[in-house]
Structures are given as structure tokens and as C-alpha cells.
Design goal:
This protein has about 240 residues and is α/β, with parallel strands linked by helices. The chain has helices at about 15-25, 45-55, 60-70, 80-85, 95-100, 130-135, 220-230, 235-245; strands at about 1-5, 30-35, 55-60, 105-110, 110-115, 145, 155-160, 165-170, 175, 180-185, 200-205, 210-215. β5 (about 110-115), α6 (about 130-135) and β6 (about 145) form a beta-alpha-beta unit. The longest helix has 13 residues, at about 15-25. The two termini are about 35 Å apart. The protein binds zinc ion. The site of zinc ion (ZN) has 7 residues, from loops.
């Protein structure tokens, strides 16, 4: 089985379309979405519709959930909050219904799935450092946990040998998965990358070949930039797409 794992689309239609086009050429059986389909960007309804049409499983992210439960906005930055306040009145009834139906966690084959972390997904706590990862390896039992949320692709490895497990970070784009080692894999962001590379990011898991690959796809960033400005969303949210930060 070949899975494409996408996350953090953030209402960026151009990035999502480019990723779906790339996925068509990559022989993918199923597409999984780890959440944050909306927020920040100008095309919430179109992105929800496309994700719903193409993905076999969609999790909720903190931005999706904030559209349903606005008490979540207390923890949002000013720009993130402004974008949700812009988004909510524009959601169609179908979009709202979709958003309200997505679960916090999921499972595929030997993988646990969550937007932010596997321990307490509703806390939205980040896994950014090796010491964060060490803790969260104890919070799931499968071989791999896929996450998004930080918008930065990264792989944490729990290497299991005769002694205590050793932990390290892998930043390459292709990784052979070897049992009994375990992995926390952040697939990066489709619609708002923050690793200084403006290209849309997503991951591919090939369960037959036991291989994970990180894919980057360029898209028409200028078009999304203009749409954000025209929509009256904060200019900061347009500028950051140009530099991927
Ligand atoms: Zn996000």
C-alpha cells in the first residue's frame, strides 16, 4: 500500500491542487490528511471539498477545531485568530458539517495518526525537540506516529538495540523503515511551510517497501499571496508564504 500523508493545508487551494496533481503521478492508493485544512488562507470551502473528495481519513487540527469550538481561540496568536474569525462566517453548511465530523486521532496499518502529538492530541502540544520526542514515544505503541502541526518536516527515531533505546533526529528526505526501530514523522505543511522552503510538503509511506519519502512541490505562491491580500486577511500571512517561514 502506498499512502500519501498530507497536513496543514490552511485554506491554500493552489498548494493543495499542486500536491494532488503530484500525488496522481506517484501511484498512491490512499491519501490521509492530518488536519488544519482551514485557517490562515483564503479558500476554506474549496479546500474542505477537495480534501473530503480525495482523502480516506481526515483528522481535525487546532484551526479546524477552533471553527467549531471558538473557546480554542484563547490559545491562538493574533493573526491565527483573525484568520479564523474571517473563515467562520464564510463556511458553507456542508463545510461546517465536515469540520465537525473529523476525529482527533486515527490509525492505518502499523501507524498512529494525530495532528499535534499522540499523547494528548487535544492539548495541541508540539513535538519540536528530541526531548519532546523521547517523551511522546512512550505515548503510542505502534511502529510509526505521523504528525503535522509545526509545519516543519522532521523525523525522530527511537533506535532499539540490546541496550536502552537511543534517540536521534533524521532530516533526510528518504528513509528505510527498519523494525524494531520506531519513528515519529512530521510530514510538514502543504499550505504554509515554515522550514525556509516555500514549496508545499507532504509524505509518502510505502508499506511494501518499508520506505518513507518526503516530497516537495512548487506551486503558484504569487497567486495565493494576491488572494490573501484581496481577501483582507493579514498581510503577514501572505508574506510568510513567499519565504516559507
Ligand atoms: Zn497548522
Amino acid at each position: 500500500m502506498r499512502y500519501a500523508i498530507i497536513s496543514d493545508i490552511h485554506s491554500n487551494l493552489e498548494a493543495l491542487q499542486a500536491v494532488l496533481k503530484a500525488i496522481e503521478r506517484l501511484n498512491i492508493d490512499r491519501i490521509i490528511c492530518l488536519g488544519d485544512v482551514v485557517g490562515y488562507g483564503p479558500d476554506p470551502n474549496q479546500c474542505i471539498e477537495l480534501v473530503t473528495k480525495n482523502c480516506t481519513l481526515i483528522l481535525t487540527g487546532n484551526h479546524d477545531y477552533a471553527c467549531i469550538d471558538q473557546s480554542e481561540l484563547e490559545n491562538f496568536t493574533q493573526y491565527a485568530r483573525e484568520a479564523i474569525e474571517w473563515t467562520v462566517p464564510k463556511l458553507t453548511a456542508e463545510s461546517y458539517q465536515q469540520l465537525a465530523s473529523w476525529p482527533f486521532t486515527g490509525e492505518i496499518d502499523n501507524c498512529f495518526l494525530a495532528h499535534a502529538n499522540p499523547g494528548d492530541p487535544r492539548s495541541w502540544d508540539y513535538i519540536l525537540t528530541l526531548s519532546d520526542a523521547r517523551y511522546y514515544f512512550s505515548q503510542f505503541s505502534s511502529e510509526i506516529c505521523f504528525i503535522g502541526h509545526s509545519h516543519r518536516p522532521i523525523i525522530f527515531i527511537e533506535q532499539r538495540g540490546q541496550n536502552w533505546p537511543r534517540y536521534h533526529v533524521y532530516t533526510g528526505t528518504s528513509l528505510a523503515l527498519e523494525s524494531p526501530h520506531r519513528y515519529i514523522i512530521n510530514v510538514g505543511s502543504v499550505g504554509q511551510p515554515r522550514d525556509s522552503n516555500p514549496a508545499a510538503a507532504f509524505g509518502i509511506l510505502d508499506t511494501d517497501q518499508q520506505l518513507f519519502e518526503e516530497i516537495r512541490v512548487t506551486y503558484d505562491v504569487q497567486k495565493t499571496y494576491q488572494k490573501i491580500i484581496s481577501a483582507g486577511l493579514p498581510e503577514f500571512l501572505a508574506n510568510r508564504l513567499l519565504i516559507g517561514r
